[in-house]
Amino acid sequence: MSEAHNCHWLGCQRHVPPKLWGCAPHWFTLPKDIRDRIWAAYVPGQELTKAPSDAYLAVAREAHEFARSHVPAKRPSPASHQAPLF
Predict the structure, then answer these.
(1) 64-77, pLDDT tens digit by residue?
(2) What pLDDT is stored for residue 85 in this prediction?
(3) What is the Cα–Cα distance from 82 to 86, expressed in whole angstroms?
(4) Is the separation of the CB atoms in 66 and 34 below 8 Å?
(5) DSSP H/E element including 23
(6) Burial code of 7-28, b = ≥16 C-beta within 10 A, e = fewer?
């Protein structure tokens, strides 16, 4: 990869090729209809020109909203039997 590019999933730091929206685990977490619309709106080379279409930007925003609403809540740490000792 010539340029560092992270997965677009909120908080993910995995590097992916610039033409990809995200890493495989997060890409396949998106609903198939969103994935299909991302590819339909993708124009080859837009990652080089830095000029994605309005259609691509709209569906990318939708994917981002989906990702934001699907960030798992942090679970509280299990109670420790040693907690009263500290």
Answers:
(1) 999 999 866 555 55
(2) 54
(3) 7
(4) yes
(5) none
(6) bbbeeeeeebeeeebbbeebbe
Question: Residue 63's closest CA among 35, 28, 44?
Answer: 35
User: Two tokens at 80?
Assistant: 């420790």
**Helices in 1-86 by DSSP H: which ranges?**
24-27, 32-41, 46-49, 54-69
Tokens of 57: 């930007």
In tens, the pLDDT along 56-66 reads: 999 999 999 99
* Two structure tokens written together for 48: 């080089």
Output the six-digit token pair for 45: 């080379």
Which parts of the chain sit beneath pLDDT 50? 1, 86
